[in-house]
Amino acid sequence: MIERAYRTAEALGIPVWCQDEAGPYQAIPQAGASWQPVGHPAHRPHEYVRGGTAKLLTLFRPATGEVRAAPVTRATNAILHPWLQQELETILATLPPPDPAAPARQAAAWEWRERSLWELETLPPVRLLLLWDNLTGHRTPALLNWLVARGVWPIFTPLGGSWLNLAESLQRIIVTRALAGHHPRTAQDVMDWLAAAVAGWNADPTPFVWGGPRAARRQRARERRHALGGSGGYTRRPLPRPRRPPYHLPLPNGYAHVI
User: Fold this and answer.
1) Ranges of each domain in the chain
2) C-alpha neighbours within 13 Å on the C-beta side of residue 80
3) Residue 169 CB partners (closer than 8 Å, separation 6+)
4) pLDDT at 3
């Protein structure tokens, strides 16, 4: 379902947004490259005072590269849920009104008829897909009811599959730009630099494509595999077929017949 969402949802008029909480990031010297002259590397202090931690609430749309983020000191449900609801309300206000025929078209395209929830007439049309991690705080009944009532359908990554959330890839880029090679003194410095990095990203966003050249290379590699008869194994090169040596059958007239 996650792969189908990345590949086909936007074409059906359903925007896909990914949400994640990054951090915590400490206000300490951060490792990373720096613009230092050759032969004069940047020195990091061996003594420093820990200035607190900060986190980054991220809402990312891979199809356009748009990021909505909020640096915070904590990411509890009391902070995350109101922020997420406010951002989703803003996003939904920019979308066109729901189409009454959309549920049937979406179910046919995504093969969701096997899911009984999609057959209920009481559910509103799906207007937005929210992909995020499988955390207990993301499954509170009040939040789920609020999302579904507004046409926001949550999709949870499986246990151990948080790499399917493209927001994590975006966060690594933002955090590297903001903190790598720097020494924030306080948690406020961390939050200010993260916010500045997000603003710089939104000034020239880069869309993310699910799969891309790496997936195409993997597909070509799978096509080059040679299956072994009678098992589920395969080889990357065809195995040479054994050839038996010729057998000379002697004949009465002194000649030999090669078999």
Assistant:
1) 2-35+44-203
2) 21
3) 208
4) 83
- The size of the chain, in residues, is 259
The string of DSSP codes covering the chain is: -HHHIIIIIGGGT--EEEEEEEEEEESSPPP------TT-PPPPPSS-----EEEEEEEEETTTTEEEEEEES---HHHHHHHHHHHHHHHHHHSPPPPTTHHHHHHHHHT-TTSGGGG-TTSPPP-EEEEE---GGGG-HHHHHHHHHTTEEEEEPPTT-GGG-HHHHHHHHHHHHHHTT----SHHHHHHHHHHHHHHHHHS-----SSHHHHHHHHHHHHT-EEPTTSS-EESSPPPPP-PPP-EEE-TTS-EEE-
pLDDT in tens, 81-92: 999 999 999 999
Domain spanning 2-35+44-203: CATH 3.40.50.10330? no
Ranges of the chain whose pLDDT falls below 50: 112-120
The answer to whether the bond into 24 is cis (omega within 30° of 0) is: yes
CA-wise closest residue to 88 among 2, 153, 165, 23:
153
